[in-house]
Amino acid sequence: MTVRIGVIGTGAIGRDHARRINQVLAGGKVVALSDVNRASAEAVKADIAPDATVYATGEELIAAADVDAVLVTSWGATHEQYVLTAIAAGKPCFCEKPLATTAEGAKRIVDAEVAHGKRLVQVGFMRRYDAGYVALKEAVQTQTGAPIMVHAAHRNPTVPEAYTTPMAIHDTLIHEIDVFRWLLDDDYVEARVTFPRSCARTHAKLRDPQIVTLKTAKGVVINTEIFVNCHYGYDIQCEVVGEDGIARLPEPMAIQLRLGAKLQNAILTDWKDRFVASYDVELQDFLKAAANGTATGPTSWDGYMAAVTSDACVVGQEREGEAIAISYPARPALYA
Ligand SMILES: NC(=O)C1=CN([C@@H]2O[C@H](COP(=O)(O)OP(=O)(O)OC[C@H]3O[C@@H](n4cnc5c(N)ncnc54)[C@H](O)[C@@H]3O)[C@@H](O)[C@H]2O)C=CC1
Ligand SMILES: O=C1[C@@H](O)[C@H](O)[C@@H](O)[C@H](O)[C@H]1O
Question: What is annotated about its quaternary structure and interactions (predicted)?
C-alpha cells in the first residue's frame, strides 16, 4: 500500500521530509501540501511533489479524502491544533518536536488520543533512531552496569538573533530530554539550571552557554551543557557512567587525516547532516505504521513528558541554581 501523505508546513524540515518520502523511502507519496506562506508549498510542489494539491489551510488538507496520514512540520506553536484535528479525523500524524509548546497543550493531545483509543501520533524525536544512540543503549543495558551519571553536550555553531534563552530548552535541549528518558528507561524528578558567564558571541536575548542538571526517579544525575554559539561545529556528546564501566556515544563517521604534521578529524557543522540517517529511519517507521492506520515510535506521552520537563527547566532558568521538582500524572495504559 502507498500511504498518501499531506505535509503541513513546508519550510526547512517539511521540505526535507517531503523529499524523503518521495525520493528516498518506500511506501509513501506526498499528495497534499499546505503552508501559511503558500509560495513555500507551491515551491515544494514544483521541486518535489508535482502531483500534490496545495491547500489554503492545514485543516482542509487533513479533511481531504485522498490524505491517509499527515506530517506536521509547521512552527511549534501551531502543532497542537493540527495534531488534534488529525486525531479527530482518525488519521495517523507525524509531528515534529515540540508536540506542543506547553505541557497543557501536549496533555490535550494525550487526552484526545486516549479517548480515540488507538495510537495515531508519532513525535519527531529522531535521536531514538540514530545508530549511535541505539548502540549506546545496548551497551548501557548489557555491559556498563546500572547507570549512575550522564555527561552530555549539545553544541551548535551559531543561532539567529531571534533565538532566546528559553529556546535553548524548548528547541534544543528537548532532544536530550527525550533521548535520556528512552536511553535510561527512567523519568525525571528534578531540574536545575546554572549559567557560567555568557560567551562573547552571544546576543542580548540569549544567555549562552548554560548547564542543565536533571535527576531521575532511579537517582541518575544528568549534566548537559547547551552551548549554541560554540563556533567550532555541531557537536553532540554523551557519556554514560555505570557501575561497571563507561559507554560513550560514537562520533559521526569521518575520514581521519594525517596531514601537515597534524592528526585531524572533521567535525560536522549542521544538525541536518548529523542526523540525516535517523530522519530516514523514523519516517520509514511512520509510513509502515500509517499503512496499518496507527503509529509507533515516540508517543504523545513522550511529547508530553518532554514538555513537562522543558517547563521545569525554564522555571529553573528563572531561578538559577534552585532545584525545580518535576511531577506528572500516571501514564495511561495506551502508552504502557
Ligand atoms: N527534529 C529535528 O531535528 C528538527 C525539528 N524541527 C522542528 O520542525 C518544525 C519546523 O521547523 P523548520 O522547518 O526549521 O522551520 P521553518 O521556519 O523553516 O518552516 C516552518 C514552516 O511552517 C510554516 N507555517 C508556520 N505556521 C503555519 C501554520 N499555522 N500552518 C501552516 N504552515 C505554517 C512557515 O510558513 C514555514 O514555511 C519546528 O517545530 C522545529 O522545532 C526543526 C529542525 C530540526
Ligand atoms: O531540532 C533542532 C533544531 O531545531 C535546534 O535548533 C538544534 O539545536 C537541534 O540540534 C536540532 O536537532
Answer: Homotetramer.
